[in-house]
Write a structure and sequence with these properties.
Strand content: 5-15%
Distance between the termini: 18 Å
Radius of gyration: 15 Å
Strand order of the largest sheet: 3-2-1-4-5
Length: 156
C-alpha cells in the first residue's frame, strides 16, 4: 500500500473544476484502502480556515486508511533548513513544513497541486539535495494526476 502525504491543495482540489477529477479519484483510493492518506496537524490547521465541505471531506476516509502526524522539532528544523538554503522563502514556511513532515515520516510520495512552491522540479531538486546531505531519503513530489497515472501503468 502506498502512503501518500496529502497537502491541503489536494483536499480543496476535490471542489475545484480544474483539479477535482484527480483529487476525487485519489480520495476514492484512500477510501478503498488501495492507498493510505497521511495527514499532518498542519493540514488540519489549514483546513480549519476552509469551507465546511472541504473540511468534512476527510471524514469519508476510514480511520484505518489514515495516518495522522504531528509537527515536531525535527520537522521544524528541516523546514527551516529548506528556507535557510534558499529552496523557499519565509513566506512559504507552511509549504516547507509539509515537505519536511512528508520526508521525516517516510511518505512514499507527497501529493500537491501547489506548482509554485511544492510540485516544482527545480525546488524538488533542492529539497532532495538538502535531504540527502542531512541523511534523509529522497522525497517524491507529484500531483494526484501523476500518482494515479503511475497506478494505471502498473495495472496495464
Amino acid at each position: 500500500m502506498v502512503n501518500v502525504y496529502t497537502d491541503t491543495s489536494v483536499i480543496g482540489g476535490c471542489f475545484d473544476a480544474e483539479f477535482n477529477e484527480w483529487s476525487l479519484a485519489l480520495f476514492e483510493e484512500f477510501k478503498a484502502g488501495t492507498k493510505q492518506i497521511i495527514l499532518s496537524d498542519l493540514v488540519l490547521l489549514e483546513l480549519n480556515m476552509a469551507r465546511e465541505e472541504i473540511h468534512s471531506k476527510l471524514k469519508e476516509v476510514p480511520l484505518q486508511h489514515r495516518i495522522d502526524l504531528e509537527t515536531n522539532d525535527e520537522a521544524i528544523q528541516l523546514a527551516e533548513t529548506y528556507i535557510l538554503e534558499g529552496a523557499l522563502t519565509n513566506k512559504s514556511y507552511n509549504d516547507a513544513l509539509h515537505i519536511a513532515l512528508a520526508t521525516i515520516n517516510n511518505a512514499e510520495v507527497l501529493a500537491s497541486w501547489n506548482f509554485k512552491h511544492i510540485v516544482n522540479l527545480d525546488r524538488i531538486r533542492l529539497y532532495n539535495s538538502i535531504n540527502l546531505r542531512l541523511g534523509y531519503r529522497l522525497i517524491e513530489i507529484r500531483t494526484p494526476r501523476e500518482i494515479l497515472k503511475a497506478g494505471d501503468d502498473e495495472k496495464g
